[in-house]
C-alpha cells in the first residue's frame, strides 16, 4: 500500500496560505479566514497538494487550508488518539485497512450525502473500496494497481517475452513462467521478486488462481486455491531459487526493488508507487508489461488512498468545500501532472499518463490492470489487528519452515480471532 514518505522531517511549505503545523481544531487564523486542516503521511504528494491548495485559496479567499504532515511510523497511532479525543484534522488521508473502524464509529462525514453528485467522476474501484454498508465514506485521491517491470537487456538475452508469461500451480505446458524464470536466474542474478508482499505478490497470485483473501471482513486463507497459490510462490523461493531468500526479504520489503534497480533482478512485479524510484535509480533500459497471468487470468490488487472528513469538524461547510475541490479534476491536477500517482478523478488521469509518456514510460499496463479483474486490499474495522496476528505465521511459511496448508489454516484462525470486536 502506498506509503512512500518515511521522513520524520516536516515538509516546509513555501507557498502562501499552506502551512504545516499541529492540530488546532480548524480555528480561524489572524486574518479572519476559516482554517481547514488536512493531514497526510506522504511528503512527496504533499508538494502536489501545496500547489493545489494555493489555487483553491485564490478561488476561495475566505478559506485557508493547513497541511499537516505526519510520518507513516506515527500516523495511525496519532490518528487513533486524535479521533478519540476529538482533535483530529478536519480532513485526513486513510487507507482501506484503517477507515472501517472510523466509519463504523460514525467518526466520518457521509460522502454520499455531501458529494454524491461527484461520485461518477471518481475511479470506481476506489469508490468501491471506501463504500461500507452501502455508504461512501471517502473521496478517492490516488490509486495504484500492479504490473510487471522488466529489465530489457536481461529478458532480451534470455529470449523471454515478459508480456506473455503465465503461471500455473499444475505445472506442465500451462506454466510458461517458471521455465522463463529459470532462464533468467544466473549466479547472483534473480528472475523475480517472489516475497512476503501482499499488494505486489501473494494477493495477486491468490486472485489470479480464482481465490479470495477475505469473505466480507473475515479472512478466508485456507482454501485449495489459496494453498496452491502460496505454495507456488514459496517454491519459487525455496525450491527453484529463482527469487531471493525470504530471510533477506521478509524484514526488508525494499530489498527486491533495490535488486531490480541494481540490475540484479530481471522481473519486478509492483505498482506505480515505484515508478520514480526506478526512474531515478536504474542505469539500464526498462519497461512495463502486464502482470503475470494465472489460471483465472490477470487479477490485480487495486488499492487507493481516500480523503475523509471528520464528523466532528467545527467548520462542516468549509470542510466539504475543500473535499469537493480535492475530488475535482482541477484539485488533483498537480498530483497527476507531477507524476506522483494516478489520481482518483478519472478526468485528471491523462495528466499522469502524459507525464510518464514524456519520460519514455508507457503506464498503460497499470490502467488495464485497474479496469480488469481485481482483488481488493484488506478491509474491515480491525484489519490492522488481523494483519499483525497473521504476519509472523505467514513469514514462517515464506521461509519454508512451516507447511503452506498448515500455515494458512493457522493464520486464518489467528487473524479472525484478532479482528473480533
UniProtKB/TrEMBL annotation:
PROSITE patterns: PROKAR_LIPOPROTEIN
UniProt KW Signal keyword: yes
Gene3D superfamilies: Periplasmic binding protein-like II
Signal peptide: 1-21
Domain of life: Bacteria
Keyword Repressor tagged: no
Localization in the cell: Cell envelope
UniProtKB keywords: Signal, Transport
CDD domains per the UniProt record, alphabetical: PBP2_TMBP_like
Pfam families: SBP_bac_1
Similarity comment: Belongs to the bacterial solute-binding protein 1 family.
Protein name as catalogued: ABC transporter substrate-binding protein
